[in-house]
Amino acid sequence: MADYDFDVLVIGAGPGGYVAAIRAAQLGLKTACAESRETLGGTCLNVGCIPSKAMLHASEYYDQAANGSFAKLGIKVKPELDLDAMHGQRKDAVKQLTGGIEFLFKKNKVEWLKGRAAFTAKDTVKVGEREVRAKNIVIATGSSVTPLPGVEVDNAKGVIVDSTGALELAKVPEHLVVIGAGVIGLELGSVWRRLGAKVTCVEFLDQILPGFDGEVRKEANKIFKKQGFEFKLATKVTGAAVKGKKATLTVEPAAGGASETIEADAVLVSIGRRPNTDGLNLEAAGLKTNQRGQIETDHDFRTSVPGIWAIGDVIPGPMLAHKAEDEGIAVAENIAGQTGIVNHDVIPSVVYTWPEIAGVGLTEEQAKERGPVKTGKFPMLANSRAKTNHEPDGFVKVVADANTDRVLGVWMIASVAGTMIAQAAQAMEFGATSEDIAYTCHAHPTHSEALKEAAMAVTGKPIHI
Ligand code: FAD
Ligand code: NAI
Asked: What positions does the entry give for NAD(+) binding (predicted)?
């Protein structure tokens, strides 16, 4: 240690990096974390998971009051939107949570090196004016928005925006066009639709929500359409022109054909995210990225250069905060000589729309490619709690191996699917069969009973349908 400044230097203080730094410090390693943002917490806490959920939560209540859902419960209200106050509570949530990480750094004696980090050698990094040597360096630099050529984002102007700009629109747009009907497009599209915008999603593929189970994608499409979303599928945007506060988009069929124009007063570009490695000077460390710009690692999160590790959005795999966090813990434990493992086959994914959409493991399509499967499905309409709460949309689906009954995947659309999916993930982590879930006692009346009955349906024995 004598000539090293730190045992561990983490680059990036998102959910991957800050968790890795805290765990490393907890394990007795002298740790620093370089972060160039003004506040800790990365994309997730500053401009991602947290502010988007603050806007989703608030807009959901507004919508329920405005669309008659409260009236159905015998509550008569006429909502009035105070968008400044809604933004205010979003900013408060971000401030409190990012401040919380700063507190945790102090508590655990993690030193925050403020500034952009760049390698000068394989064990040396320059952060601002300071050069530090570390025995282990963890790259956790995350990702940022993939740009769309011809559609230039200008968040300050507020007409063509990315997710960061879309969280902060100063007024409700009359017509919001979302480019890309993936997770961000549907979540942030939902926020502004609930607050009164007409929302059109232009999607390159012929279906929304890539990566999700086929039946879930179709059902989600139906539900969103019923809510007022308009989808232009198999369509590509070829250009955009901004005049004052209006944008004109040119679109054409993805397969080619006649183009048309769409007028919008806000455009959200949400076509994916790409890893952040620009300016890191990876060459000085002897590191290369793959064709997708990601840093490749082995199962322990070691890169090809001894002493350099990488986790989170900057490495292959789903770009999710909880995946980054789990990798943060595992990498710190591996550095400390323990056995840190992440089971990448069981990473849940949640879209926080209304209702929520969640999945874990293999889709039915993926499972069928590997061998024979059995599936069981249960509609939320037949779940007593969902019915009582006036939440009839959606279903739960269990995909199991036809020979062993082992659960391979669980997919669901339900008001509280984001919470329910944790049980499915835990069951899969323990190697459960559908019978194990079917014979586990679930409290009544809960939405979770729908998972039990979907598991019962795998062998053909649900009670309530
Ligand atoms: P990041 O959170 O991106 O953090 C990386 C940090 O590194 C950044 O703060 C950056 O400033 C810093 N950095 C980069 N380069 C350098 C450098 N050279 N020197 C110093 N610092 C550097 N995921 C979910 O699981 N659930 C959600 O609900 C969810 N909602 C989202 C909503 C939106 C609008 C967006 C955009 C994303 C959302 N995500 C969500 C994805 C989630 O935010 C990411 O998967 C997660 O933040 C990745 O964590 P990370 O630690 O790898 O990187
Ligand atoms: P995404 O990959 O979910 O969706 C992008 C969509 O854009 C896809 O449907 C794709 O087919 C489409 N697309 C790509 N190019 C296009 C083009 N030129 N024209 C029209 N459509 C095009 O990416 P998104 O929504 O930007 O989110 C980025 C990442 O952030 C995701 O990987 C996700 O994991 C993460 N995230 C997670 C959330 C959550 O967990 N709830 C919430 C928000 C983001």
From this structure: 180-187, 203, 272
In sequence order, what DSSP letters do the residues of 316-356 get, joined into one string?
SS---HHHHHHHHHHHHHHHTTS-----TT---EEE-SSSE
- Closest ligand to C-alpha of residue 352 is 2
Can 6-145+274-335 and 160-271 be said to share one CATH topology? yes
Is residue 59 within 8 Å of 85, Cβ to Cβ?
Answer: no
pLDDT in tens, 376-388: 999 999 999 999 9
What's the pTM value of the predicted model, to 2 decimals?
Answer: 0.98
Indicate which residue's Cα is closest to atom 12 of ligand 2.
180
Tell which CATH architecture fits domain 6-145+274-335: 3-Layer(bba) Sandwich (3.50)
> Which residue among the candidates 87, 442, 444, 447 is catalytic per the annotation?
444
Taking CA atoms only, the protein residue closest to ligand 2 atom 18 is 236
Q: Is the CB of 70 under 6 A from ligand 2?
A: no
Q: Which ligand is nearest to the CA of 417?
A: 2
- Tokens 């994916």 identify what position? 272
- List, as residue ranges, the binding site for FAD: 53, 141-143, 313, 319-322
CA distances, 146 to each of 191, 208, 273, 276 (Å):
21, 18, 5, 11
CB-based contacts of 156, cutoff 8 Å, min separation 6: none
49-66 and 83-108 helices, crossing angle to 10° = 150
ipTM reported for the complex, 2 dp: 0.98
Q: Hey, what are 336's tokens?
A: 């400390």
Active site includes 299? no
Q: Which of ligand 1's atoms lies nearest the C-alpha of 16?
A: 51
**Tokens representing residue 122 in the block:** 């394989």
The verdict on the CB of residue 237 being under 6 Å from ligand 2 is yes
Note the ligand closest to the C-alpha atom of 273: 2
The segments of the chain whose pLDDT lies below 50 read none
DSSP bridge partners of 118 = 126
Q: Which atom of ligand 1 is nearest to the CA of 115?
A: 20
For a mutational test of ligand 1's pocket, the pick from 18, 35, 49, 356, i.e. the residue with the most ligand atoms closer than 8 A to its C-beta, is: 49
Token duo for residue 419? 């919470």
What pLDDT shows up at residue 1?
Answer: 52
Encode pLDDT of 345-390 as tens digits.
999 999 999 999 999 999 999 999 999 999 999 999 999 999 999 9
Second-level CATH architecture of 349-458:
2-Layer Sandwich (3.30)
Instruction: List the domain boundaries for the chain.
Output: 6-145+274-335, 160-271, 349-458
